[in-house]
Design brief:
The protein is an alpha+beta fold. The protein is built from 17 helices and 17 strands. Strands 13-10-5-6-7-14 form a 6-stranded mixed beta sheet, with helices on both faces.
Length: about 550
């Protein structure tokens, strides 16, 4: 998992650095440079001009492409500087590499600094017709890199780094060397010429496909990050202080509890995940009768916190008694009443409207905490998900004999779940036993922990697994998580920690109702859970 996490950290560090640069600027610079180079290589040689005039115009086109690229590279380097680094001079090169050691994010960053100046060396040499071109290219690259470092120092935009100057200069020299050797072997059927042309061709292909792949990732990640900040709940945040002598909700950005100040962590991303009790793997839309759309049998809040790098999951009983919207069998709204949380899904259309009812009900239960997305899937897909990661190994809880549902699920027996057995383990309960849903939640918690560990192992073998699973199951889910949101969530989740302590079951008391079991949330425990999960303590207040 650490290797996967480092890869995503490296990609995100590059992608995040590009956030400050307008996207259209890349297209404009690339278009102009490509136009000038194509004109130099293919258009001008076919014009009926004198050779001296053709040569002068070709040099002008290449020089124009060099100036535009160089200005863009300098602007990119200045715009993507991290202001948090402070205003300083780093005399000793590669001090960060020496102090922190080699890591994938740092390796990608340093390689990018080298490759950024390779085109500078190539373009600089291509517009020269004098001797000592390599030395001139070396000095030119050094001068341009020095200029960038000097500008950022006097502009107080980061660190003046000798290591960056070395990498930029080497990149420019490498580009110049390759260009000189290419010109020297052009038209010659030598081994060096063939190998050099093959190397250039392969490099261009790798560069084009790599840039396209990274560009796609960057666009999807940044778009997904922006969209995932939206609150899909219609309930307003109404978490208030519980210290009587402190300010009431709305009077301050802080809430107070036990003499401490807390502020909502607006960096967290919260997803509502629901397992729906419907026949079939694909969730069906109900158009006829309200209340017959299936119930939310399994309800989980997944909370991703980029600040603490923690992934937390809160399991909520379907029997939780809370306010939900009520309708008659023709779909006429009757108002809100206190009923089982899982029924909120049944009153909708079985798809988007049902999910929205659940989002609002859960948000209201959690004092209006924002919910940024939802995903509902039929519980019958659990077997396919389980098999996709290689099967989850669990232990049937002592005293809970499930052999009547599956002969292998004997009390206390360890078993690796496959196919329908996984669905049975997660879904089955003895409806004649009071509090059986709480026992089922305990089994679901065990399954989730095992599934996460098994999924990590599976992704180590196949990093494309999350994308393939999304494509395979997206048609069977009801979700507002588009592809760009999924890319962002996967890149964030890959960097986060998830262990048994990060999976919490909402505390409360189960009681026998007139017809069905009822679960009443411990409000004090819920309040503490919300503070711990969604808020940050202000130590300086």
């Amino acid at each position: 998992m650490q290797k996967i996490s480092r890869i995503f950290e490296g990609l995100e560090s590059l992608s995040s650095g590009l956030d400050s640069v307008p996207g259209m600027a890349f297209l404009a610079v690339a278009a102009v440079c490509i136009f000038l180079l194509l004109a130099s290589a293919f258009v001008i040689p076919r014009l009926k001009w004198r050779e001296r005039k053709k040569r002068a115009f070709r040099q002008t086109c290449v020089a124009g492409a060099l100036v535009i690229y160089l200005l863009s590279a300098m602007g990119f380097m200045l715009l993507t500087r991290d202001p948090s680094q402070g205003h300083q001079i780093q005399v000793f090169p590669f001090a960060e590499l020496i102090s922190e050691g080699l890591s994938i994010p740092l390796l990608l960053t340093e390689t990018g600094k080298l490759l950024l100046f390779v085109p500078v060396g190539i373009l600089f040499v291509c517009q020269l017709h004098r001797e000592e071109r390599l030395m001139r290219a070396f000095l030119f690259s050094f001068g341009m890199s020095l200029l960038v470092e000097f500008l950022q120092y006097i502009g107080r935009m980061g660190t003046f780094s000798t290591g960056d100057m070395i990498l930029n200069t080497l990149g420019g020299f490498l580009g110049a060397f390759l260009a000189v050797r290419w010109q020297h072997t052009a038209g010659r059927k030598t081994v060096e010429g063939v190998l050099l042309r093959a190397f250039f061709g392969l490099s261009v292909m790798v560069l084009v496909f790599g840039a396209a792949a990274f560009g796609t990732y960057h666009v999807l990640r940044t778009g997904g990050e922006r969209d995932m900040r939206e609150n899909v709940s219609s309930v307003a945040l109404n978490m208030g202080s519980r210290d009587g002598d402190k300010k009431a909700p709305g009077e301050s950005d802080y809430i107070w509890h036990n003499g401490k100040a807390y502020q909502y962590n607006d960096q967290v991303v919260t997803l509502l995940c629901m397992g729906i009790d419907q026949a079939g793997e694909e969730i069906q839309k109900e158009k006829e009768v309200s209340g017959e759309s299936g119930q939310a049998d399994s309800i989980f809040l997944a909370v991703l916190d980029p600040v603490s790098r923690q992934l937390r999951v809160i399991a909520i009983s379907r029997d939780t008694m809370t306010k939900i919207p009520a309708f008659d069998n023709k779909g006429n709204y009757l108002g809100e009443n206190v009923n089982h949380l899982g029924l909120a899904y049944a009153y909708g259309d079985g798809r988007e409207k049902s999910c929205q009812y659940m989002v609002d009900a859960v948000s209201e239960l959690f004092y209006g905490i924002p919910i940024n997305g939802y995903a509902a899937f039929s519980l019958e897909t659990i077997g396919k998900l389980n098999d996709a990661v290689g099967g989850v190994t669990v232990t049937v809880p002592e005293g809970e004999d499930m052999s009547s549902a599956d002969p292998q699920l004997i009390s206390g027996a360890p078993v690796t779940l496959t196919g329908d057995m996984a669905e049975t383990f997660v879904r089955w309960r003895n409806i004649e036993e009071h509090g059986s849903n709480n026992m089922r939640i305990a089994r679901q918690k065990q399954f989730l922990l095992g599934f996460f560990r098994q999924a990590v192992a599976a992704v180590r073998k196949d990093v494309s697994l999350p994308a393939s699973l999304y494509q395979e199951f997206s048609s069977e889910m009801v979700t507002d998580i588009s592809l760009d949101k999924a890319v962002y969530l996967i890149s964030e989740a890959a960097k986060m920690n998830f262990n048994e302590g990060n999976l919490t079951v909402l505390q409360g008391e189960a009681k026998a109702g007139k017809v069905y079991d009822e679960f009443y949330v411990d409000d004090d425990a819920l309040y503490e859970l919300i503070l711990d999960t969604f808020y940050m303590e202000e130590t300086d207040s």
